[in-house]
Here is the input.
Amino acid sequence: MSLLVLLSPLPAAAQEADFYRGKTMTMIVPIGPGGAYDTYGRLVAKYLPKHLAGEPLIVPRNMPGAGGALATNYMANVAPHDGTVLAIITSSFASDQILHKAEIKYDARAFGAIGRLADTRTVLFFWHDAPVQKAADLWTHPSTIACSTLNELPAARLLLMNSYLGTKMKLIPGYPSARDFVLSNERHETDGGAATYVGLLQLFPSYIQEKKLNIVLQFGTARDPAMPEVPAVTEFTEDTELKQIFAFITSNDEIGRSLFTTPGVPPARLALLRRAFDDMLGDPAFRADADRLSLPLTPKSGAEMEAIVRETFAVPESAVAKVTELMGR
Here is the structure.
């Protein structure tokens, strides 16, 4: 064998497969420490390297700010576009762009989807002694709902129900998080709140089990198999456009806790990340750790997540206008 052959570089495919060997990668988490984003991100940082050739190190980095846009803008405009920077993407990153939020400096369609860990179905819940005990009570019993602000999508869902379905909820802003919503219910400052089911399971598992929190409605176009007895909001309307609006403002729940990488990553490298992600999901140790941390897994592939983002952008402009009006923009 000639010296020239011995010194020739590895074939391109072999070089790509070995790309991550010796690398230090970054896992961007768009909120501060604690909560489901952070927990999922750190779990992936622990297990994904085991399924990449060379087992690179993945270092979590919390980057809160601007409702998650700070982290997503960083991914699009500052981070290297080589597949070494990953993120548990902000679930509203596509809908925020469609709603023309001023802080958005990216195109959600350009990011590389690796796969979804779990959806984040939002539920409407009430304290056990609140006037609302079932979905039908929303039309007959006035109630107060803790929320963070009136000009974001979570509030728009409730305002949409009041405006177009005739429910009787009064939104009380100023509560920063789901934890605060529940504590305000417990103090009888408010009757209920809306939060992700996975978040409530993490923060208040005993309250769910003991029925101190009563889940009466789920936001989605169909009932989640995990909550077959809880009606979906679209069951209360036959209006096609209204169903489209609800589909749009719940699209972030479909994105949920998903792993994305930066725009511009070579397709072969993105395929490596997708394959490692799929292998990680089948890893018994990963699944056991997720179960120990009370992290549900309702995975989808990278290709499926690409399609969900594209479908979010297919929403009619008339539907977007109604949501924007409700949010006071």
